[in-house]
Queue: 2 jobs
Job 1
Amino acid sequence: MKSEGFRQPFIAQGLYMTSPDLAQTIQEVRDKALEELQGLASEEELESWRILYLGRRGRLTSVLRSLGSLSQEERRVVGAQANQVKALLEESLAQAEGQVKESRIAGLAQEEQIDVTRPGRSVALGRFHPLTQILREICDAFVAMGFQIVEGPEVEWDHYNFELLNIPRDHPARDMWNTLWIDYRDEKGEQPMLLRTHTSPMQARTMERMKPPVRVIVPGKCYRYEATDATHEWHFYQVEGLAVDDGITFADLKGTLYEFARRIFGADRRVRFRCDYFPFVEPGVDMSIDCFACKGQGCRICQETGWIEILGAGMVHPKVLEGVGYDPSVYTGFAFGLGPERIAMLKYGIEDIRLFYSNDLRFLRQF
Ligand code: PHE
């Protein structure tokens, strides 16, 4: 209790007092009490005040106790007066308590008031890596044309990465893919293991597992034993596409890839197909779009040619179909492979492929 300083018995000699003395003491106690009450602002202070004046050993209580020393007549008069004062003090206390409580609530309301016009705290928003964004965009374009997405292993057998794709052992065509070999072979010791150099092994894996019609796209990571520079990385993404069915023609290939180019690079894009060689397609092509930066006039992005090469494609080679047990006299199909890094670099004017993998926030925050 904080009231210790006030605790000394106020009128210890009250027992010897006379009636006029007592009456006056009561007045004094009343005036003092009311005066002190004025300045009190907290519930603790009010409690100390109550103990000091109205408590069991309080000032007024002591006066009331000393009434016993008066005559009966005096006791009646002074007692009535003392009881009035007691009631007055109690009532004043209740009033003061009410006020303190009210102002405390008002203070709380003030503190907790919400200013709905204040601007909110901004939350740091994450975002997808630019490559994830472009991969989704590319996949969305093909999904809209009826392709389904499949994924495959990044660690692959020679069998799928090369042999089933019409690239036999020791064939010079293997030089097109600088391969990272893994020091491991299958149980018979025949199959070397490698990091897939392209997503094309999923052509064979998909056809082994499905009957035609097949329409899949395969986004995924690939690896090559290559020196890095502004346009080469030793790890990168590809998106493979494969459509096989009864009666698929080169016109389907052209139509599908043309639509894809328009969706990604704009509705007024034109495309160009040129002969190219990949062992697992026949005929094989590469596809270019007219340069969206200079509209075909010739600029830095298209290296003054007006055309930008964006993917390799072709009709699935009969040997590949045979290899997975499809009858090439019944089924035909087309396949393509594109590099999302290159697509993103063209689309966003990124000049160095290594930026995608350098984890530099200054670069990543731009997307
Ligand atoms: N897999 C080939 C590459 O990595 C691209 C390709 C895919 C070409 C499918 C034709 C058909 O270069």
Job 2
Amino acid sequence: MTLTTNSPEETRAFGKEMAGRLRRGSVLAFSGDLGAGKTCLIQGICEGLAVAGPVSSPTFIIANEYAGRLGDGQEVPVFHLDLYRIERQADLDGLGWEEYLYGDGICLVEWADRAPHIFPKDVFKVRIEVAGESERSITVTE
Ligand code: ADP
Ligand code: MG
């Protein structure tokens, strides 16, 4: 599905809605240019998962972990990864991505196209394109 949002608030609201469809072990692979709105959408998803505290791109440390909650109130770890700085296979060594991508948490990965081969088969792909100053086209495929 593809939809267009016209403000960061709309993008966050869509993220909040998406959160309701996530389960333990859900993996979302985000792609789109710098400033497209990947982090913005993830902020909305995290809001929907009742994550307290700030959500920002973990560009320099690769992974953030937040405490989230599913719709039924159960706690779920939320992993927020940013692969922007991954340039070669060796950059993936020792990051512990296996635990994030194949574990029991919800895993949200920015710049997923930096390492497409590490993702499970069952993944939501979320592509964000800049369509105007505050217009973003968001495509989600399963
Ligand atoms: P990314 O993580 O993809 O690099 P960010 O989410 O950090 O992008 O930044 C997106 C930027 O685009 C923010 O400055 C935000 O205010 C702006 N923006 C403008 N319109 C939108 C929109 N419709 N959805 C999301 N962000 C938008
Ligand atoms: Mg970002």
